[in-house]
Amino acid sequence: MSYLYLLIAVIAEVIATSALNASKGFTQVAPTVITCMGYLIAIYFLSLTMKSIPMGITYALWSGAGIVFISTIGWVVFKQHLDAAAMIGLAFILFGIVIINVFSKSTHV
């Protein structure tokens, strides 16, 4: 169940961050509301995840996955440029997430 909570937290954070970009500095009402609600949902489900996965590991997985997803959305939806160094850095983050999940005993709940 912890990984489902973590997935919900990541998705909510990615939606919130995408809406934050669309809010244009909180000048657009709908994206601003989506941003606030998304972050509230993300933090709530992140707190549920931390009941069974250590805080540092939870945060590493949440932030790492969020970075990769929001960078991808920025690239695809918002047409933001990702150069080779950015792509390599994102690949390292993905490898880090895989290493933690496959080899770390800290994530076994």
UniProtKB/TrEMBL annotation:
Pfam families in the record: Multi_Drug_Res (PF00893)
Broad class of the protein's primary localization: membrane
GO MF assignments: amino-acid betaine transmembrane transporter activity; antiporter activity; choline transmembrane transporter activity
Protein's cellular compartments: Cell membrane
Top-level lineage group: Bacteria
Membrane topology: Multi-pass membrane protein
Transmembrane segments: 26-47, 59-78, 84-103
Keyword line: Cell membrane, Membrane, Transmembrane, Transmembrane helix, Transport
A GO term from the CC aspect: plasma membrane
GO BP annotations listed: glycine betaine transport; xenobiotic detoxification by transmembrane export across the plasma membrane
Family indicated by similarity: Belongs to the drug/metabolite transporter (DMT) superfamily. Small multidrug resistance (SMR) (TC 2.A.7.1) family.
Name under which the protein is recorded: Multidrug efflux SMR transporter
Species in which this protein is naturally found: Acinetobacter lanii
